Amino acid sequence: MKISNSFILGSVAVLVAAGGAQAADLPVKAKAVEYVKVCSLYGPGFYYIPGTDTCIKLGGYLRVDVLANSNVDNTGNTSGAAGARNRFTNGYTWRSREDLNIDTRTATEYGVVRTFFDATFNWTSDSYAGQGNGATVYSPIGTVQAPNNANTGAVAAGTVGVYYAFIQFAGFTIGKAVSQFSAPWTAYPGNNFDGLVGGGGTITGVNQFTYTAEFGNGVSLSLSAQDQTAYYQAGVVNLGAPVNFGVPSNTNVFGIGDYAGTIAPDFVAMLRVDQAWGLFQASFAAHDNHAAYYGGTELTGHPDDKWGWAGQLALSIKNIPTGPGDTINLQGVYTDGATRYNIQDLAGSAGQNTIFGSTGVPGAYQSIGFGIAPDTVFVTGGQQQTIKTWGFRGAYVHNWNPNWNTSIYGAYAGVRYTDTAKGYICGPAGNGVGGSLSNFFGAGSALTACNPDYNIAQLGTQTQWTPVKNLTFSADFTYTHLDQKMAGTIAFPGSPAIGKPGAIYELKDQNTVLLLLRAQRNW
C-alpha cells in the first residue's frame, strides 16, 4: 500500500497541534526563589534565615600561638613539668585554634529572643612524662597507653570546647555565658596572657540562670544563680587524706580534695553603670562549700557545709588625654571561702603552684616554692576553715596609631589561712611536725618557718600590630613572682613523672617568665 508523503506530514502536524493544545491547558506554577536578605535590625553582619523572620550572624577567628618556656598554653610554668624547670620543661608550646560562633535574633512581642553559641577546635602540642625507669611517654594525661607504655596514637591535645551556649529573652539569660560577677574584660584588662590573678573572669562561660533589669542611662542590675562545679571550686581539702605527688598534674601538697555532690549553685548580684566616660561595676557572690566524708564511707562522718563569699569592684576609664581610644581598666576583689573569684581557673595554676629552682644552701639538691589556695581545709572530726584572699589587677592600653597599640598590665593576690588551719597543716609546734605536712615531707625536713600563706605578683607588657582590618600580630611578655612564707628545708619525696628525685630541697621564693607570640584573623 502506498501512502502519500502529504498524508503522513499532515497527520504529524495534527498530532503535534493536539499535543501542544493539551500542554497549554495544564496549570504551570513557577518555583518560588527565596533570596538571602540583609537584616539591619541588629547591626552589620546579620542576614534573615530564608523563609523566617529570624536573623543570623556567623563569626569567629583563627588563632595561632607559640609560647616560650611553658608546657601549657599561655598560663605559665608554675606547676607540673612546666614548673620542674628541667629537661621535661618545654622550650616552646604550639597551639592552633579555630573559633566559630552563631548569633540568632528574632523580634517578638516580648522583645528580642537571642541565642548565642561559640565553640573552639584546638590542636595543642603536649609534654613528655617520665616513667621512673629511664623511659618517657608523650601526652600521658588522659590517653590510653599500650601495655608496653608506647603511645597508641591518642590525640595529644586535639579538643573541641563549648565556650558559650545561651538563650536571652525578656531580660533573662539562660545557659553557658560569662559570669555576671566578671568585669566586661573578664581576665584580660590589657593582656593576652591567660593567667592573671586578682579577680574573677573565666573566659569560657558558666551555666547560669540570670535576670537583668535595665534602669536606663546605662544602669543595670543582674541577679544570677550559676553552676560552681566547672570553674568556681578551688578545693575543699581533706588534710587527713594521703597525698600522692608523683603525677604530672597539679597536686595539693597539704591534703586531697574531698567534694560531695552538687547541692547549691553560686548566687551572684552585679550592679553596673556603663556610660561614655567608662564603666563602674560592683559584684557579689555567695559560694557553698559542700564536702564529702572524712573517710571512705558514710559512717566516717563529714564536716558541715560552709558558705563563702566574694566581693569585687571594677572601673574602666575611656578617652583619657594620652590618646584616642586609650583605656585604663582596674579591679579589686576580696574572698572568704570563694577563692576562684580571685585566683581564677587559669591563674597561677589555679592556686596550685609548685615551682622548682636553684639553691645556695649546702646539702640541698634544689629549691622549691609552694603556693596552694583552696576554698577550705578540714581535718577528721573538724569543721571547714575558709581561706581568705585579696587581689587586684589592672592595665593601661595606649594606641600609638590605628595599627599599633601597647599595654602595661599587672596583678597581685594574697592568700591567708586562719590560725586554726595553720595548726592543722603545720602541727602544734608550727614546724610541720604533727600536721598534715608530715604526711608529705619525709624525715630530714628542717622547717624554720611553716606558714601556708603566700602572695603572687605578675607584671607584663603586650604590643599588637594590626596591618589590615581583623588581622593582628601580638607579643606578650609576663613575669611572675611567687612569694611563699615557708622557710628551711624539706625532704621532698620526689616525682618520677617530672624527673625530680627524693632529696633535700630548700623552701624558697620563685620567679618565672613567659613569652607569647600570637597571630589572629577575625572574621
TrEMBL record:
Which Pfam family, an example, fits this chain?
A: Porin_2
Q: Where is this protein chiefly located?
A: membrane
Membrane topology, as annotated: Multi-pass membrane protein
Q: List where in the cell it is found.
A: Cell outer membrane
Task: Tell me which UniProt keywords the record has, alphabetically.
Answer: Cell outer membrane, Ion transport, Membrane, Porin, Signal, Transmembrane, Transmembrane beta strand, Transport
Query: TM segments?
Result: none
Drop me one GO molecular function for this one: porin activity
A single GO CC term for this protein reads: cell outer membrane
Domain topic, free-text comment: Consists of 16-stranded beta-barrel sheets, with large surface-exposed loops, that form a transmembrane pore at the center of each barrel. The pore is partially ocluded by a peptide loop that folds into the pore lumen.
Name recorded for this polypeptide: Porin
Q: Which organism is it from?
A: Bradyrhizobium uaiense
